[in-house]
Amino acid sequence: MKMRRKVVKISLLVIALMISISIPILAVTAKKKKLESGPIIIDEYSISGPTWADLADEPWLKGSGTEDDPYMIKNLEIDAGGNFFCMMIMNSEAYFKIMDCTFSNTGPYYSPDGSGKNAALILVNTQNGVIFKNEMFDCGFPETELGGGIALVASSNNKVQKNYCHDNELSGIYVQYSNDNIIRQNLCTGNTWGIFISEWSNNNEVTKNKCYDNEEHGILLWSEANGNLITENECYGHFLGGITVSGSHGNIITGNDCSENFGSGISVESSYGNLITDNYCSENAEAGINLEYSNDNIITRNLCTGNLWGISMGYGSNSNEVTENDCSNNLEYGIFLLGNADYNLITDNNCMENLVAGIVLSGTNGNIITDNYCSEHDGAGIVIVGWYGSAEDNILCGNMLENNYYGVYFSYVSNNDVFRNTIKHNAYGIFLEGYCVRNHIYHNNIIENDVQASDEDATRNDWHNIYMLEGNYWSNYEGADSNGDGIGDTPWPEIGYDAHPFKEQDGWDIITAEEEEWINAFFAPDTNRLRGMATVRDDEVCYIIIGFKYSFSERTERLFFPPYTANYQFDGVLYSFQGRFWYYDEAMLGLPGYVEFFVKKVPANYFRDDLNLDPGVNYFQWVLSWYDDGVHIEIEAYRWFDLVL
């Protein structure tokens, strides 16, 4: 009996302790009732409304406006009642914070000053503000020019963070003529645009925001919004696109998730100099990344899968660099260039298992497609077609094309170079149909394709380099090599195709000991050589070397055309070079191409005994000649050198 009473006493004590602990917890966590107000305007110029000091006695305002004691507006609820703003702060440099407030219900009116503002919170010519953890909804008006949830106009150095901007007519957050603001960790949904950076708004940081299910764009940079950092945002579920850059330049778009949009993940329109890197752009109805009328942008290290196209460029998008992207498992193409998208560099991309093709060029010119991996396509690894415009002067170099139906597919194209690629285990290695003419196909490894090559008229194209007299390696070539130079004696597979087939893979990279000596002499700075201006020691072996690059732009720029003829002169006496060879060096040229070297190796005392030159300054003249469409062209140059006997 005593034991039962003791248990009861202990139980009552536990209950009492629980009640005493829970009461203060409930008191702490109870939600504080918000203050209510009509629209508020603050203008430090005292033109449109009272100043901060005039409102010092208001119950919703605390602080003194210094950096250590900013003005504080907290737990305030404003229903605009159809006015064009809930709160407007103008011409302020004071430090202030607005937090845990709720703004709503602006109506079909806008500011009488003609600026077209209609938003829950508007900052005009204001800085040093912190807008934190507020809710803005049911604001903006479709006939106004700007507004929505939060609007920054001609304002700088503000921080907009962790706000919930939803179901507004225009933008969740709008920025115009405003620089150096931080917009971070906001949730913008159900608006027309999630975040809109507009008109000369520069150097803003837009980071870690969640923008989803807005009507048009998640984040829009428009009309000279330049130099902004757009990073680590989530933008999905938009009708036009996740992130769009229009008429804006020099922005960095990095680390964003732009997926499951009804348009493209990232779109760049009429913009240049933007860096788009390390973004996740997948499962979009159009392209993962799309460029139109945009030049000199860099698109690198993005993951673009499950879209209609991984990366697309069209309609005059020129001189862009697309590198190290993963463009696999898209519904049609990994990378797609269309309609005069010219002179772009497409390099080191991974294009696998797209339903139709890895890389497609249609009606585009002068692009360099190099070092890409294109595999497992029902269509082709790389396609170039001239169905909707010319497709000329493109370069396919160093690509790995395997396990596709076609390794390379050409139709109605001309003057393209295909070299140093590995094309293997495809149904068709290289396939040319329609009127294809003057395409140059050489120095490729063509290995174990069901059909190695097919050309409707092989005589219209060059299946070997007509200057080097070197062709391709064919895994099924069985011809002899009687002189041991690594090149077969008979054409592959018949006259009209490759007249100079290699016997070994990468046979074009095999150089003789003499050629290696010349290359070392050309590149080594301490070599006793006559190459332009130099000091030459007559008591040592000397190399006279002239090199001319052939970088494939010559056809479009109408500059130099091999084969060249070169000679040199001392005091008007003509001497000939003893050797010439071709050397591939992409790093030296800056783009795929070859150098044709002319070399003469001369013994010690050559300049004194054979040429009778005096010590000191002497002149060396070289003459280069070639033919351009049957017209003989010749140029010459003079170089001095200091001869030491």
Explain the overall architecture.
The protein is mainly β. The chain has five helices and 57 strands. It is elongated, with a radius of gyration of 35 Å. The chain starts with a helix and ends with a strand. The relative contact order is 0.04. The model is unreliable at 1-30 (pLDDT under 50).
Describe the structure using short key phrases.
single chain, mainly beta, 5 helices, 8% helix, 645 residues
Low-confidence stretches: 1-30
Biggest beta sheet attributes: 17 strands, parallel
What gap, in angstroms, lies between the N and C termini? 125 Å
* Count of helical regions: 5
The percent range for helix content is: under 10%
Question: Please, what is the average pLDDT?
Answer: 89
| Radius of gyration, in angstroms, nearest whole number | 35 Å
Which overall shape is indicated by the principal axes computed on the Cα atoms? elongated
- The total strand number stands at 57
Structural class: mainly beta
The fraction of residues assigned to DSSP E strands is 35-45%
Write a brief caption for the model:
The chain is mainly beta and 645 residues long. It has 5 helices and 57 strands.
